[in-house]
Amino acid sequence: MRLSQFHLATVKEVPADAEISSHQLMLRAGMIRKLASGLYTWAPLGLRVLRKVEAAVREEMVRAGAIEVLMPSVQPRELWEETGRWEKFGGQLLKIQDRKEQEFCYGPTHEEVITDFARNELKSYKQLPLNFFQIQTKFRDEIRPRFGVMRAREFLMKDAYSFHLTPESLGETYKVMYDAYSRIFTRLGLEFRAVDADTGAIGGSASHEFQVLADSGEDHIAFSDASPYAANIEKAEALAPTTERPAPSAALQRVDTPTQRTIAEVSAFLGVPATQTVKTILVRGAEGLVALCLRGDHEINEVKVSHLAELGDEPELASEEQILAATGTRPGFIGPVGLPDNIPVIVDRSAAVLADFVCGGNQDGTHYTGANWDRDARVTRVEDIRKVVDGDASPDGKGTLRLARGIEVGHIFQLGQKYAEAMGAGVLDDQGKMRTMFMGCYGVGVSRIVAAAIEQRHDDAGMIWPDAMAPWRVAVCIINPKNDVAVAEAADSLYQELTQAGIDTVLDDRGLRPGPMFADMELIGIPHRVVVSGRGLEAGTFEYRARTDAEARNVTREELLAMLK
Ligand code: ATP
Ligand code: MG
Ligand code: MG
Ligand code: MG
């Protein structure tokens, strides 16, 4: 690709509304552009990266024996009624109507559609096992779309679904997919962990999440420093013995770890305008700590309750009496706290019982402010209400538990017969008897991987792509202030030679000065930079620098080709 014929639109300014590095860098590099909340256009540069991830995922799926299909993104209500998920899926399901007032949803996932396909398509145990996958756009009406494509509403997912006669066969394919996922993230150059995950509401017998390690990650994971034990925090807590931890102090505490959110995000979460007064209530109830966010001004009549069970789902609205009944505690409240626009607000979620809590911050945003405390109310650090903390003994008895943050980029599940049974998907066995199939499902957040990789790999100058994900592996930069024909031709011929050797190369022929040109190449994270200049040509060398090298060095054409092959 000749950059003069491409659309590269980098900017220097850090975008004001992007908080985490990956989101800032993707906007600065011109990889994505926001259309509306949680909806992004993939600009040409971003799409090159997205397509590389997609290709790697597709290749590993095919290698693992999965077969590609493509299902509609719009799905009829009737299918979702069969599994009961039309109601149960909650607020993330975007429901739409056609002109005949028939109801549909925009698919957040495809268990129903693939199970329908399988029940029509598969007749005999001889056809099994089968594993179908697609790479396709999903829509989830997330409560808080944020961090750009990291948590978008429309996003690209690879989802696979396997069908089996027996649970043993499901277990085998599950293992194959586990290995395929490990290969995908390894080849994409990511530092990740596969963690044991709770099967939770979906049911089934086994589940693993693939978490890219990053401090900005929304998920908490726990792993042993002396054994292969690794689990997400929910699973680790489910197994942990309930040790009584000292009650958090009622005094206002400094909160170091929770991420700070702007008032705009908090108001988006609460669904109230930023200027409106927000009251926050923390209650220690029978089930532990519950966060209640009050909307409106003075009347405590409508409260949002976030429970662990609804992590990620829409909080329920409950009356004060309902809260009293559910928690054994009458809600007290901090505030009312009038929140002006520019004050950071602390929001985080914990894995204990608390899903989300929202507090008004003082000027520097590090302390909670509060008044009118209920006797039982506590402001507490997220760590204090966890059942497991860094330094606990590992649940497998081997070593010490370490906590880290992760970004969920993949999730595999043994679903068992849940969907097949609800939808009547069966095959005939060798006795001619109808048997309900066993299913597995396997998701990869293709678009999220792009953001997660940047989150994990960047420096002050920009992104640092691993070769496998880079928009181009090599940039050939022309330094040619005097418009010397020999320099231009040498650069062009090197570009063509690399390209013909199958090396994905971009020629920076935009005629920029070295400073801005190099800054762009670093910002967009090209792994290998080659500079062609008059001086170099005289010496018979090119200047080479890997994105992670401290210094550039001079190499001959042969050395360069050998290095980049
Ligand atoms: P999360 O916990 O982050 O909300 P999830 O558990 O709801 O994700 P799954 O249903 O397991 O997601 O979907 C499979 C994969 O799709 C996830 O592992 C993640 O990588 C990706 N994904 C899910 N939601 C989003 C989103 N809103 N934006 C981008 N990618 C997403
Ligand atoms: Mg989710
Ligand atoms: Mg999840
Ligand atoms: Mg998941």
TrEMBL record:
One of its GO terms (cellular component) is cytosol. This is Proline--tRNA ligase. Its EC number is 6.1.1.15. Residues 5-466 form the Aminoacyl-transfer RNA synthetases class-II family profile domain. Homodimer. Catalyzes the attachment of proline to tRNA(Pro) in a two-step reaction: proline is first activated by ATP to form Pro-AMP and then transferred to the acceptor end of tRNA(Pro). As ProRS can inadvertently accommodate and process non-cognate amino acids such as alanine and cysteine, to avoid such errors it has two additional distinct editing activities against alanine. One activity is designated as 'pretransfer' editing and involves the tRNA(Pro)-independent hydrolysis of activated Ala-AMP. It comes from the Bacteria. The lineage of its organism: Bacteria, Pseudomonadati, Pseudomonadota, Gammaproteobacteria, Lysobacterales. GO terms for biological process: prolyl-tRNA aminoacylation. NCBIfam families: PRK09194.1, proS_fam_II. GO terms for molecular function: aminoacyl-tRNA deacylase activity; ATP binding; proline-tRNA ligase activity.
